[in-house]
Amino acid sequence: MKSITIKGSERESVGKVATKALRNAGAVPCVLYGGDQPVHFSAEEKAFKNLVYTPNAHTVVIDLGNGKSFNAILQDIQVHPVSDKILHIDFFQLFDNKEVTVEVPVKITGNSKGVMAGGDLRITNRKLKVKALPANLPDYVVADITPLEMGNKLYITKVPSENFKIMHPDNTVICQVKMSRAAMKAAQEAAKAAKAPAKGKKK
């Protein structure tokens, strides 16, 4: 999985007053969990642009200077309900020998026979939770829709998951091909035409 670096600084005070001052200065208060003890730090809001405002999944290198750096993943984010301003972010520390669960996007590939026949591709799950060692975390899960005929569904059991485990029930549907309104109408008209008696045919 691709990684991005966020440069920040440790917070000496974590009270409400100090937190408000950080936000007023354009910084985001953060906490890193998962280690021996929580690490409180802050970073400029713009530093999180490539982490938060993207459909892609990333691991994070938190660089606090003076040789202090941590590998982590974003665990939770609080956003202002009106302004969408980032209020707080929680990170979880990664260790090479410990598996972690993250959410990654689904990448659709191939050309479905059902879609080419006029069906509509309905994507049910655009992201999936996977579990793996940090070194084996995928950038995305590949879903090949080529075999899907009209009315078929693609289940998670049909997607490759080498070196990682998909944390969803086997009956989880990633996408399906449904008959479009136009195709359904054409099928109905064809059925009616087949049932109608031929013109000029004697009873």
From TrEMBL:
<keyword id="KW-0699">rRNA-binding</keyword>
<dbReference type="InterPro" id="IPR020057">
    <property type="entry name" value="Ribosomal_bL25_b-dom"/>
</dbReference>
<comment type="similarity">
    <text>Belongs to the bacterial ribosomal protein bL25 family. CTC subfamily.</text>
</comment>
<comment type="subunit">
    <text>Part of the 50S ribosomal subunit; part of the 5S rRNA/L5/L18/L25 subcomplex. Contacts the 5S rRNA. Binds to the 5S rRNA independently of L5 and L18.</text>
</comment>
<dbReference type="InterPro" id="IPR029751">
    <property type="entry name" value="Ribosomal_L25_dom"/>
</dbReference>
<dbReference type="InterPro" id="IPR037121">
    <property type="entry name" value="Ribosomal_bL25_C"/>
</dbReference>
<keyword id="KW-0687">Ribonucleoprotein</keyword>
<keyword id="KW-0689">Ribosomal protein</keyword>
<dbReference type="InterPro" id="IPR011035">
    <property type="entry name" value="Ribosomal_bL25/Gln-tRNA_synth"/>
</dbReference>
<dbReference type="Pfam" id="PF01386">
    <property type="entry name" value="Ribosomal_L25p"/>
</dbReference>
<dbReference type="InterPro" id="IPR001021">
    <property type="entry name" value="Ribosomal_bL25_long"/>
</dbReference>
<protein>
    <recommendedName>
        <fullName>Large ribosomal subunit protein bL25</fullName>
    </recommendedName>
</protein>
<feature type="domain" description="Large ribosomal subunit protein bL25 beta">
    <location>
        <begin position="99"/>
        <end position="180"/>
    </location>
</feature>
<dbReference type="InterPro" id="IPR020056">
    <property type="entry name" value="Rbsml_bL25/Gln-tRNA_synth_N"/>
</dbReference>
<keyword id="KW-0694">RNA-binding</keyword>
<comment type="function">
    <text>This is one of the proteins that binds to the 5S RNA in the ribosome where it forms part of the central protuberance.</text>
</comment>
<feature type="domain" description="Large ribosomal subunit protein bL25 L25">
    <location>
        <begin position="6"/>
        <end position="91"/>
    </location>
</feature>
<dbReference type="Pfam" id="PF14693">
    <property type="entry name" value="Ribosomal_TL5_C"/>
</dbReference>
<dbReference type="InterPro" id="IPR020930">
    <property type="entry name" value="Ribosomal_uL5_bac-type"/>
</dbReference>
<dbReference type="GO" id="GO:0005840">
    <property type="term" value="C:ribosome"/>
</dbReference>
